[in-house]
Write a structure and sequence with these properties.
Layout (H helix, E strand, L loop, with lengths): L1 E3 L5 E4 L1 H7 L3 H4 L10 H17 L9 E6 L5 E12 L4 E8 H21 L5 E4 L5 E4 L7
Antiparallel strand pairs: 1-2, 1-5, 3-4, 4-5, 6-7
Amino acid sequence: MVLIDHKGSILAFNEAAENLFAYSREDVTGKNVRKLMTIANGRKHNGYLRNYIKSGIPKIIGKGRNVMCLDSEGNPFEAFLTVKKSSDDMFEYFTGTFDKKKQENASNMNTVNELFQAMENLVDSTVVINSKGSFFSFGFGFVWF
């Protein structure tokens, strides 16, 4: 869990985040959350915060999505990010939770969805059986698991 303020400064960084990003709390507390992102994502992040605070229209809050992150060595990795908002009398705060396992499941579902789309475009019926023996039939509008 990573807690940031309305400016993107990291206020809290729990043990799970320390393990995931290979940073200690002391290394990141008070730093901008961009430190945990790829350069491309980091450049846009403060603008995303400003736009949300100005408009109140959430793009990721309460939804979640796959994002590219950077660990302390600069190695990129993908994780599923879920963001929740909280506030006090002065400011809004954002809590991000990261799940590498959920990202892997989401990636697998994307692969399955891409396979479905590709197979539906075939003229002839195609049958696929996976390594677990699950049967998929495409072209006739049904799938069995």
